[in-house]
Write a structure and sequence with these properties.
heterodimer; A: alpha+beta; Gyrase A, domain 2; six-stranded antiparallel sheet; five-stranded antiparallel sheet; 5 helices; 11 strands; 34% strand; B: mainly beta; Folate-binding fold; two-stranded antiparallel sheet; globular; oxidoreductase (chain B); sarcosine oxidase activity (chain B); SoxD (chain B); EC 1.5.3.1 (chain B); SoxD_sf (chain B)
Chain lengths: 193, 98
């Protein structure tokens, strides 16, 4: 497989190279494309109401306080996961953990960049594909663009973000990534029918 | 699929995201070391297990991950209402005639 070949090549060049799970894997089906997203910086942020202003300032975006919403600015996305819990994903290469370190207000920021992998599901049948394993209502009324939620996909927990009307970002733990990707691939092939 | 309203997410979510966490409103004794064995048994093991309306703790584990309380009918499996953890037991249930 291409994946195995890429692995051997990487192993030959450097011993401390970062090797994201399933890197480069893609699947194209009629109506939907599933692909692994490039590595990103991520943190898990827990903070009380009183610290939000200081953290928002340090992170450069306003942390959303409404359930199932997200905020995005300059390649950095903050996803509301719980009443005092957020996931920050930075795709611009900046480190949100370093930004939070400067904040003296009470908070807990944990780097989870390597714990998660992102999978993009895009195309007219994207919602159908995700819905094959996710029981949430993904219609545009219930789950509009920018909506984000921790939920379940088959047997694995995922964080789901709607990046566009026909595009989703699925975040899962890297050890579950093979399962999640395979499930989405199978669903993508089915969604066309 | 059974839909359960999460008081923190403020909407109904599929039951697969939730997990039951036992009976609600069980207060831990303030001085547990001084409890007699009988009282401890009552607190620790004995549950009401009613046929009908039950007050339970539930956790939105694959969602906001918060614990909350729910009133459920064990006969019909219908959720009467849900409310945030720490809030008092509702005095009157919606739709209850008596």
């Amino acid at each position: 497989m291409a994946k195995a070949a890429a692995k051997t090549k990487a192993a030959a060049s450097a011993s401390v190279e970062r090797r994201p799970a399933l890197a480069g894997r893609t699947l194209s089906a009629p109506g939907v494309k599933v692909e692994m997203l490039p590595p990103a910086e991520r943190i898990s942020l827990r903070a009380p109401q009183a610290s939000l202003a200081a953290l928002s300032k340090a992170l450069g975006l306003t942390l959303p306080v409404k359930p199932k919403t997200s905020a995005m600015k300059d390649g950095r996305t903050a996803l509301w996961l719980g009443p005092d819990e957020w996931m920050i994903i930075d795709e611009a290469g900046n480190d949100p953990l370093a930004d939070c370190a400067k904040v003296t207000a009470l908070h807990s920021a944990v780097g989870i960049s390597h714990r998660n992998v992102g999978i993009s599901v895009a195309g007219p049948a994207a919602a159908v594909t995700v819905n094959s394993g996710c029981p949430q209502d993904l219609s545009l009324e219930a789950f509009p663009v920018g909506a984000a939620s921790r939920t379940i996909l088959g047997k694995s927990e995922i964080v789901l973000l709607r990046t566009a009307e026909d595009s989703f970002r699925v975040e899962c733990w890297r050890s579950f990534s093979d399962y999640v990707f395979t499930l989405l691939s199978e669903a993508a092939s089915d969604a066309a029918n | 699929m059974l839909l359960i309203r999460c008081p923190y997410c403020e909407e109904e979510r599929p039951e697969l995201e939730f997990r039951n966490a036992g009976e609600a409103h069980i207060a831990r004794p303030t001085n547990i070391a001084a409890e007699s064995d009988d009282d401890f048994e009552k607190f620790f093991f004995i549950r009401a297990n009613p046929k009908g309306v039950i007050y339970e703790r539930w956790r939105h584990i694959h969602g906001c991950a918060r614990f909350f309380n729910a009133v459920r009918d064990t006969v019909t499996d219908k959720f009467v209402m849900t409310y945030k953890a720490g809030e008092p037991k509702p005095a009157k249930l919606p739709g209850a005639s008596k």
